[in-house]
Write the structure tokens for this entry.
Amino acid sequence: MELNGCYDAIKRIHERIDAMNLKYYIETYGCQMNEHDSEKLAGILEECGYTAAQSKEDADLILFNTCCVREHAELRTFGNVGFTKELKQNNPRLIIGVCGCMMQQKEAAQKLYRRFPFVDMVFGTHELKNFPILLERALNEQRVFEITDIDGEVIEGLPVKRVPGFSTFVNIMYGCNNFCTYCIVPYVRGRERSRRPEDIVNEVRKVVSEGFGEITLLGQNVNSYCSDGVNFPKLLKMVNEVEGLKRLRFMTSHPKDLSDELIDAMAELDKVCKHIHLPVQSGSDRILQLMNRKYTIEHYMGLVDKLRAKIENVEITTDIIVGFPGETEEDFEETCELVRKVGYSNAYTFAYSPRQGTKAAAMQDQIPLEEKKRRLNLLNSVLAETLPAGNEKYIGHIGDILVEGVDHRGKPLLFGKLSNFKMVYVEGPEDLIGSIVKVKVDGLRFNSLFGHIIH
Ligand code: 5AD
Ligand code: SF4
């Protein structure tokens, strides 16, 4: 993919804004994929000569990187973009841009573009490499509206400004081919395409040399990664060999494609964390079929059993949707039953949100909002009962945690995750944040564990 046009525009912007001390602020909605896209936008802006602003009020350029997976995210975006009108009145040279998944949907993008005439730039998910060219137009006071429907592009070589810390993301693939009937992602992120293994390994080497020790490989369905004859378990082996890397995570795994080879790789490879995010979405085979998920609960439970048999102390997390069209009380009960049976260590639960253009949005028997909320509350209380189950087995366990921060509920305690994603709280100095420390687990704290540092 040619990036000359992108770098030429970066150079021109750099010359133009040099010494103006311009600042940018990016507000990101949604998943890790979006967070990482924002790091690429920030990388481009820094190459152009912008620096990060602490708040929107301090910025000369504000970007909203949007999400459209659920309605809630959309409403927040409209509200927050609306608030910037006042900032623009106070600072007429302020540029406001809206991009990301929600803007890839032409109707939503046009609505926003019309409703907020002070927005300078609207662009979709496929415009990252064109971003400097679009920004140059905005600097020339032209209003930008750019959404293309291209597919199948893999862009290498864009600058990235990573959020500092110990953990970071590396994309291994883009897009999705699965068309789960509730999901908008295949429409706004395009068809599945994998990066070349050597490009991935080189990027991992680079970020490890910059000081990152934990890497999460990102893809909508990492289990269908395939490039140059390398599948996902083989890619994990290649990345596992990168010297200096401490921890390797990945997300997300679709249960229909989780192979024995991947389970074996997770068990064998020392840096691969013993945690898997395995979205089940529903506990009812009938609803799974309506969702086009292409597996049954029997298959899913088989995977859970295999993971537990082969990987010591493996922990499983999941995503669940309640109130999918046609979901009966019995279907919902099956979901609660599944949650009790699996014993997840965490679950992200959602009320079904109809997305225009998806199959499920046009299905009969949409569930009323009040009923979806009731089921969501019920499911969350079942989860609250089941989450701590099995935690006792960790008492006496010795393992490494990556210290993430300090919890100030009561006496300040450091917290961080074991390789398998279990959270452990320990006493210790704040300067350990960002490092890996060895701990021994002494007891339970809320849904998590409590212990002390050992040397
Ligand atoms: N409504 C509710 N939840 C959804 N998700 C995706 N689309 C929808 C929708 N239309 C959830 C799924 C997915 C997670 C990222 O978001 O559970 O795994
Ligand atoms: Fe959406 Fe299904 Fe693709 Fe995940 S696998 S992004 S839920 S269509």
In short: The chain has a mean pLDDT of 95. DSSP finds 14 helices and 21 strands in the chain. Residues 71-90 form the longest helix (20 residues).
